[in-house]
Every structure is written in C-alpha cells, then in structure tokens.
C-alpha cells in the first residue's frame, strides 16, 4: 500500500510536471500568513483587483462600480446567491470550462458554485497550508464525516488516491458510531478526522457517555461548516 510520504511526494511531483500551479499558490498563502504586516500592501493590491473584477464583470456587483472597500458592499448569504446565480457569474468566464462544486446539502438543498482551474488550485493550496498548521499533512489517511449521497459516494480508486475513509453521517445512531469507534481502534494509519461540528459533537458525547477511548493514532480533528461552541470544544 502507498504510504503517506509517497502520496505526498507524488502529489507535488505531478503538480510540478503540470506547471507547479498549486505550489505557487501554496508559497503565496505561506508568505501572507507568515508575514501579514510586511505583505499588507500586496494583500490590498489583491483586494483592489478583486473589487474591480467583481464590479466590472459580474451583473450583480456592477451597480457598485467605483466602490473601493469591502465596507461599500452588502452582506450576502447562500439564498441570495441561489436566487441570482447567473448574476454572480463573471462574463469573463461565462463560456469557459468551469468546475461545479457543491455542499452535501445536509441542512437542506445543496449549495452549488462554479470555479475555474486557478480557483481550484488556490483552494487546494489553502487546504494544504492550513491543514499543515493544524497537524495534517497531505497524504495522511483521514476519516471524512459528511452526507455521502449516491452521487457523492467516492469510488474505491478515488478513496485510495485521496487516502480517505468516507463515513456517512445521515444515520448517526449507536451502531454507526460504534463502527467508527472500531475503525479508529483497528486502523492505526488514520491521522485525522474531518467533519461538521454537530456530527463531531454527537460522536464525542457518545464516546464520553459510554467511556469509549479509541486506541488510535489520530493527530488532529478538524471541524468545518458549522460554529464550534465552547461546549463542543
């Protein structure tokens, strides 16, 4: 079986052979977060370009043309985007090949967005950088807690490539939580658990109430999507 180190090195090798786009973003993310004060001018430059792009190429923001700071723009939510999907799409990318990404829809209808290749590479770089900050290294085996609907279920080769163990949270009952407990006890290669705060809260409470302490090699638990309250922590 492939080790985490081999997966990590293979990822960066493939990125290098394809132009090093993810690594280029990774370096920038690292620079910005390592020296935020020194790079404030660069950050402002990026922000100005983003505002100009939004106000000159997207129908939704064209009425804000001339605005210079984020304070001049309205606060929006997912519903606003859903109701004005076409207006948020930049005319520069209307006829380009885009990737469609979606949330699981665990709290309702899935939230769908489109991204170009550059945005995808930036997101990969963000995930790699902030995962590393938390203690997760690219290539580490991890459990991903989410709603794995039929169209989102990962095939075996995809699971192997990403070194992920998908766990469906649509049915978090005693049986499924005990299965997760056994998985953490037996698979010592798992280094990370990633999931919604609510799901992690349910699982941790069950473990505590039943005096279950997994004999695992987990290094980090990453909460996403929802607010992590003090009680959950």
Question: What does the secondary structure layout of this molecule look like, with pairings?
Answer:
Elements: H1 4-17, H2 21-34, H3 40-57, H4 78-83, H5 85-88, E1 99-102, E2 112-115, H6 117-134, E3 141-146, H7 156-162, E4 164-168, H8 174-186, E5 190-196, H9 197-209, E6 220-224
Parallel strand pairs: 3-4, 3-5, 5-6
Antiparallel strand pairs: 1-2
Helix pairs in contact: 2-6
Strand content: 5-15%
- Total DSSP helices: 9
Mean pLDDT level: 88
* Count of individual domains: 2
Number of strands: 6
Q: Note the gap between the termini.
A: 35 Å
**Would you list the SSEs in sequence order as H and E?**
HHHHHEEHEHEHEHE
DSSP helix fraction: 40-55%
Structural class: alpha/beta
Task: Give the neighbour order of strands across the main sheet.
Answer: 4-3-5-6
The geometry reads as: globular
Low-pLDDT ranges: none
Radius of gyration over C-alpha positions, nearest whole angstrom: 20 Å
Taking the sheet with the most strands, its summary is: 4 strands, parallel
Description:
The protein has 233 residues and is an alpha/beta fold. 46% of the residues lie in helices and 13% in strands. It has helices spanning 4-17, 21-34, 40-57, 78-83, 85-88, 117-134, 156-162, 174-186, 197-209; strands at residues 99-102, 112-115, 141-146, 164-168, 190-196, 220-224. β5 (190-196), α9 and β6 (220-224) form a beta-alpha-beta unit. α2 packs across α6. The relative contact order is 0.10.
């Amino acid at each position: 079986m492939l080790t985490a180190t081999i997966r990590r090195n293979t990822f960066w090798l493939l990125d290098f052979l394809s132009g090093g786009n993810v690594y280029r973003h990774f370096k920038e993310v690292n620079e910005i977060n390592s020296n935020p004060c020194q790079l404030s001018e660069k950050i402002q430059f990026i922000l100005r370009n983003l505002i100009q792009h939004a106000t000159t190429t997207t129908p939704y923001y064209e009425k804000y043309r001339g605005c210079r700071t984020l304070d001049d723009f309205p606060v929006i939510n997912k519903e606003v985007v859903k109701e004005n999907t076409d207006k948020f799409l930049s005319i520069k990318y209307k006829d380009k090949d885009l990737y469609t990404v979606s949330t699981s829809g665990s709290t309702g209808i899935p939230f769908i967005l489109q991204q170009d290749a550059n945005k995808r590479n930036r997101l990969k770089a963000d995930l790699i950088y902030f995962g590393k900050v938390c203690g997760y290294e690219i290539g580490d085996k991890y459990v991903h807690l989410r709603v794995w609907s039929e169209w989102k279920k990962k095939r075996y080769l995809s699971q192997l490539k990403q070194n992920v163990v998908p766990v469906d949270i649509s049915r978090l009952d005693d049986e499924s939580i005990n299965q997760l407990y056994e998985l953490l006890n037996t698979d010592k290669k798992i280094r990370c658990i990633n999931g919604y705060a609510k799901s992690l809260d349910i699982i941790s409470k069950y473990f505590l109430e039943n005096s279950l302490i997994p004999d695992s090699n987990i290094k980090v638990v990453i909460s996403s999507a929802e607010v992590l309250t003090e009680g959950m922590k």
